[in-house]
């Protein structure tokens, strides 16, 4: 469903800080896949999302989404099909609007934002059902401002809002990293349930190796802008946290060796 | 005393229209728009010229609103399309409008409109009323007109802010990222909000000019601060009225602001100090509004204040 081919991306071109992140990035995301992505800080995971979503433009390469080249489509048009949840729970919701108002807007994604009433009373029951499924009691707080909710509640709401209108692709960028372990687990469960029920193709970045192994059906590891590991099905299933740590260590060792070769 | 009260009320209401305009940018879009300093007198001068030429009051009001829309469009264009910072875009439009306002008034910096009918002129129907009633009607007529205008404007704004488009404007100030996530072009939303705000500001300029029966190019200088002071006063001093709509709060804030200014003048402070007084009121209101400072200032007093 999504194919990135020969992606190149440099930052600070023409300055002494020029930094080539991707040299030739290729990946094919298939319909219905649930991919987890790991990699050390700065390895290019978020930039990968930024390029898919249109926040950043690649210097070279093509982005085929359902057969259409979307490389030049602006971010807001892409987000009608590609939903995103960020690490920061504040990014997915509007704090001064109520839960009901937030959901009403999310429900209207891809339709016209005109002079009809923002909240459609007929939908309240539907929203209550969706909220009930979160098991956070939010259905009782429809008229509370979202700014008064906890980080975990806001993140659950962000997730619901991102999937309220079925997206074709869901990008989750460390969306549980800012939460306490218990809430984080809750959000992961919720994620798995929503993704399964709505059958959404999903890519999830996480720093939690166990999570990366437990969740999803394909695992990708980024290192310095390259995909150094890409396992799915049985191969992924057999993988253990120790294997991943060993892989990280080997890569880091190689870096040190390279560095010492260059410096030496 | 009564005429003092009426004057405070009238000015508070006329500038209350401005406060609603400023609310839209500062509070709702989170866009510090300085172009209002140009669009307010733009509205005044357009209304003055139309009234002098054709004497058509609705046309005067309508064209000043349109003029304001244009000013907002320009600010939005500079900011969204040419990527100029929000403050600078406003300053540029405000500066440019100074010359345009002069041009519209045929290079005159002021226009008296003493001899034409305005929206505050009582029609001849008043002569059919009994003598003692006449006096009262004439006295209160401007206040009634202003009240009607502000109530209609407030209701329209309240309605608008509850529509899908209105929600989108609110989200623009609240969480710009979400506007994009909803699949909408945030640039367009900003331009629309700026147009609306400047349109209303110009409308306010047209009303104030008719109240003074005089256009002066300096009408607009520092008017942003006046509008903002009303917004801040309204939302901080009256903010405890949680169920009141922001449109109500800022109009009351505008009346409060006029009251403070009038009291300051009544205390024989020289009018040349007006701007300084405005700044001081503004700072006071901001401090009152500041959650971190307030406990220190009110230490030992009612904690719920
Ligand atoms: N907009 C940008 N401007 C300049 N450099 C950038 C930009 N975005 C990313 N980079 C650089 O690209 C590299 C990869 O960043 P990216 O955010 O994709 O890493 P990441 O894998 O998401 O890391 P983390 O785990 O810390 O979130 C970093 O070196 C970063 O400095
Ligand atoms: Mg990242």
Structure description:
The complex is a heterodimer of chains A (264) and B (305). Chain A is α/β, with parallel strands linked by helices and 264 residues long. Chain A has one domain (2-94, 168-263): Rossmann fold. Chain A is built from 9 helices and 10 strands. Chain A has a 6-stranded mixed beta sheet with strand order 6-7-8-3-9-10, sandwiched between helices. In chain A, a hairpin with a 7-residue loop joins strand 1 (2-11) and strand 2. Chain A is globular. The mean pLDDT of chain A is 93. By secondary structure, chain B is mainly α. Chain B has one domain (2-218). Helix content of chain B is 73%, strand content 2%. A two-stranded antiparallel sheet of chain B has the order 1-2. At the A-B interface, helix 2 and helix 3 of A face helix 6 and helix 7 of B. The structure holds adenosine-5'-triphosphate and magnesium ion (MG). Magnesium ion binds next to helix 1 of chain A.
Characteristic key phrases:
heterodimer, A: about 260 residues, alpha/beta, Rossmann fold, four-stranded antiparallel sheet, 9 helices, about 35% helix, globular, B: about 300 residues, mainly alpha, two-stranded antiparallel sheet, disordered C terminus, binds adenosine-5'-triphosphate, binds magnesium ion
Annotate the secondary structure layout.
The complex is a heterodimer of chains A (264) and B (305).
Chain A: E1 2-11, E2 19-29, E3 34-39, H1 45-53, E4 60-65, E5 68-69, H2 75-78, E6 82-85, H3 99-107, H4 124-132, H5 151-164, E7 169-173, H6 181-198, E8 201-205, H7 209-214, E9 218-223, E10 226-232, H8 233-238, H9 241-263
Parallel strand pairs in A: 3-8, 3-9, 6-7, 7-8
Antiparallel strand pairs in A: 1-2, 1-4, 4-5, 9-10
Helix pairs in contact in A: 3-5, 5-6
Chain B: H1 2-29, H2 36-54, H3 57-81, H4 86-104, E1 110-112, H5 131-161, H6 164-174, H7 176-181, H8 186-212, E2 214-216, H9 223-237, H10 246-266, H11 274-289, H12 293-297
Antiparallel strand pairs in B: 1-2
Bound molecules: adenosine-5'-triphosphate and magnesium ion (MG).
């Amino acid at each position: 469903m999504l194919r990135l081919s020969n992606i190149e991306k440099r930052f600070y071109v023409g300055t002494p800080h020029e930094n080539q992140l991707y040299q030739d990035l290729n990946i094919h995301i298939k319909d219905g896949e649930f991919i987890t992505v790991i990699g050390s800080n700065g390895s290019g995971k978020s930039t990968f999302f930024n390029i898919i979503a249109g926040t950043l433009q690649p210097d070279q390469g093509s982005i085929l989404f359902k057969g259409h080249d979307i490389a030049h489509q602006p971010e807001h048009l892409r987000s009608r099909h590609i939903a995103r949840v960020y690490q920061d729970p504040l990014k997915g919701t509007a704090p001064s609007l109520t839960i009901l108002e937030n959901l009403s807007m999310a429900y209207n994604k891809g339709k016209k934002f005109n002079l009809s009433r923002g909240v459609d009373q007929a939908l309240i029951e539907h929203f209550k059902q969706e909220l009930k499924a979160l098991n956070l009691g939010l259905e009782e707080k429809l008229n509370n401002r979202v700014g008064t909710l906890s980080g975990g509640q806001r993140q659950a709401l962000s997730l619901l809002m991102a999937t309220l209108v079925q997206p074709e692709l869901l990008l989750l960028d460390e969306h549980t990293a800012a939460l306490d372990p218990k809430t984080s687990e809750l959000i992961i469960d919720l994620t798995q349930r929503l993704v399964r029920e709505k059958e959404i193709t999903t890519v999830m970045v996480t720093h939690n190796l166990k999570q990366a192994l437990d969740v999803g059906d394909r695992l990708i590891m980024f290192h310095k802008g390259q995909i150094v590991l890409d396992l799915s099905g049985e191969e992924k299933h057999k993988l253990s946290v120790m294997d991943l740590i060993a892989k990280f260590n080997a890569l880091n060792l190689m870096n040190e060796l390279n560095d010492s070769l260059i410096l030496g | 005393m009564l005429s003092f009260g009426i004057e405070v009320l009238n000015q508070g209401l006329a500038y209350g229209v401005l406060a609603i305009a400023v609310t839209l940018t500062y509070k709702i879009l989170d866009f510090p728009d300085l172009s209002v300093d140009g669009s307010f007198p733009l509205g005044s001068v357009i209304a003055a010229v139309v009234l002098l030429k054709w004497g058509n009051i609705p046309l005067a009001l309508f064209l000043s609103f349109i003029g304001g829309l244009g000013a907002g469009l320009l600010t939005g264009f500079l900011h969204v399309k040419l990527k100029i910072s929000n403050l600078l875009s406003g300053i540029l439009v405000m500066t440019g409008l100074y010359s345009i306002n002069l041009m519209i008034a045929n290079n005159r910096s002021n226009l008296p409109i003493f001899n034409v009918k305005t929206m505050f002129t009582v029609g001849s129907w008043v002569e059919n009323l009994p003598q003692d009633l006449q006096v009262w009607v004439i006295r209160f007529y401007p206040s009634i007109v202003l009240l009607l205008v502000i109530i209609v404007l407030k209701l329209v704004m309240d309605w608008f802010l509850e529509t899908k488009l209105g929600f989108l404007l609110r989200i623009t100030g609240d969480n710009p990222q979400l506007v994009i996530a909803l699949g909408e072009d945030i640039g367009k939303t900003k331009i629309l909000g700026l147009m609306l705000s400047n349109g209303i500001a110009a409308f306010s300029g047209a009303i104030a000019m008719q109240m003074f029966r005089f256009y002066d190019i300096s009408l607009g200088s520092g008017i942003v601060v006046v509008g903002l002071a009303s917004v801040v006063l309204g939302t901080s001093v009256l903010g405890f009225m949680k169920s009141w709509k922001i449109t109500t709060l800022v109009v009351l804030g505008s009346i409060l602001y006029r009251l403070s200014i009038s009291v300051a003048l009544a205390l024989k402070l020289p009018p040349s100090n007006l701007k300084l007084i405005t700044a001081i009121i503004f700072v006071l209101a901001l401090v009152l509004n500041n959650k971190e400072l307030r406990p220190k200032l009110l230490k030992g007093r009612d904690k719920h204040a």
